[in-house]
Design brief:
Blueprint: H1 11-15, H2 22-29, E1 34-35, H3 47-54, H4 56-65, H5 68-82, H6 86-91, E2 95-97, H7 100-113, E3 118-122, H8 126-134, E4 139-143, H9 153-160, E5 165-169, H10 185-196, E6 200-204, H11 222-229, E7 233-238, E8 251-255, H12 257-270, H13 276-291, H14 295-312, E9 317-319, E10 328-333, H15 340-348, E11 352-353, E12 355-356, E13 371-375, H16 380-394
Parallel strand pairs: 1-11, 3-4, 3-5, 5-6, 6-7
Antiparallel strand pairs: 2-8, 7-8, 9-10, 10-13, 12-13
Helix pairs in contact: 4-13, 5-13, 7-8, 7-12, 9-10, 10-11, 14-16
């Protein structure tokens, strides 16, 4: 494994059909009858969301009239209110960008400039690894298991983290693991370790909206903890995986005061502003979710998760219980020989596109050959038909 460069993607490997990353799989999946690959939101609009769509012309003209700053503030205010993050709201230093990957690139630029290596959680969505590696940031894995026991987090990190920065995804994509499993203590221990040892803490919170309706976890005021600790931090938030808005999205980057100026200067080298129309529209979706307590987001995911569990119960795909019910489900392949790569390839012939686990294990792809990921943010009717098809296909491997 080449920790500092990109994955090998020679023309030959492309010519024989091997796909280099998950995004290339997701592009194939967009052409497949049942696309269960990307974690983007493909479900239909709820009744109140349809009313927002009906008002789009009005939102467009409104955005033409007002000041950019008005729409930025309206959006950030709604977002952090929904997420119950008063400290982030009060600090007024959040930088907006078109996509989480852009915010991650800014993080990567900062790390590269400071010549920092980073310990990145594994497994995780490969896009994070690829963006950082392609920017020349040296990467080392830190296994998710390091965070399993709150009393051992500090010592585990002390033993494992040799780099200047620690990069976490919480809740994690694909596993749904979250430090919130341990209440406040999980994050407190991570922050304490980073503060004591002078490590920059980077957290990708792109899946955080799913913690808001999970009865077993409580998203507390993260930014209060981060700010009061004095740790150097960079936190990425996102709207992209939450609302069905055809990939109109906005990501947010908030960083500690000690590095804010340096990061702001990198941020402005990349972009001026996010579309005021998109901000105006997203603010409406967020307000709608505050109003309905996120039920439009929750109901689709809960229903599809149940459908998948029922349909696949007793099959070779063994459901992996997450900490947070995120918008993807993670399954272990219970079969002595069948790999994720083989099974995924076979299922495409049935019109089903799932993601094979190997890409999520970016430092050791072989470890991911026992896992498949299924995206849940889909129209329930389509999803149900897909699960029926999948269960029938898996019968071929019944033992
Ligand atoms: C999808 C995703 C991203 C990247 O979001 P884009 O909108 O594709 O840039 C980053 N982090 C996590 C955890 C994600 O799921």
């Amino acid at each position: 494994m080449n920790h500092s460069g990109t994955r090998t993607s020679s023309p030959e490997s492309l010519a024989d059909g091997a796909l280099v990353d998950l995004t290339q799989h997701e592009i194939q999946a967009l052409r497949t009858e049942f696309n269960l690959a990307d974690a983007h939101t493909h479900q239909r609009q709820s009744a109140s969301q349809r009313q927002i769509v009906e008002r789009l012309p009005q939102l467009w003209y409104e955005a033409e009239e007002g000041l950019q700053e008005t729409y930025e503030q309206r959006f950030v205010d709604a977002f952090f209110r929904l997420h119950r993050q008063p400290t982030a709201l009060a600090r007024k230093k959040t930088m907006l960008s078109y996509a989480a990957s852009i915010s991650t690139m800014v993080v990567g630029m900062y790390l590269k400039r400071r010549r920092m290596a980073v310990s990145l959680i594994e497994p995780c969505f490969d896009n994070l690894y690829d963006v950082l590696a392609n920017m020349g940031v040296p990467l080392h894995p830190v296994d998710e298991s390091a965070f399993a026991d709150p009393d051992r987090i500090y010592s585990e990190l002390k033993r494992r983290v040799r780099t200047d920065a620690l990069f976490l995804v919480d809740p994690n994509n694909p596993t749904g693991f979250s430090l919130l499993k341990h209440g406040r203590k999980g994050f407190e221990e991570v922050v304490r370790f980073c503060k004591d040892h002078g490590k920059l803490l980077v957290i990708d919170f792109c899946f955080a909206s799913f913690t808001l309706f999970d009865p077993d976890v409580a998203r507390f005021d993260m930014y209060e903890l981060l700010e009061n600790s004095g740790v150097s931090y960079m936190a990425i938030e996102d709207t992209g995986k939450t609302w069905p808005v055809q990939d109109a999205k906005c990501a947010m980057l908030t960083v500690s005061d000690d590095i804010h100026e340096a990061v702001y200067n990198l941020h402005t080298s990349v972009l001026l502003n996010v579309s005021p129309f998109v901000l105006n529209m997203l603010a409406e979706y967020i307000e709608d979710s505050i109003e309905d307590d996120l039920s439009s987001v929750r109901d689709v995911l809960t229903r599809n998760r149940e459908t998948a569990r029922k349909a696949l119960d007793g099959s070779i795909l063994e459901y992996q219980e997450p900490v947070v019910n995120v918008s993807v489900a993670w399954f272990r392949i219970d079969h002595p020989e069948l790999t994720a790569t083989e099974l995924q390839r076979e299922l495409t012939a049935d019109g089903l596109y799932l993601l094979p686990g190997r890409y999520f294990y970016w430092s050791e792809p072989g470890k991911g050959e026992s896992y498949l990921r299924i995206a849940l943010a889909r129209d329930p009717q389509m999803f149900s038909a897909a699960m029926t098809r999948l269960a029938a296909a898996l019968d071929r491997h019944a033992r």
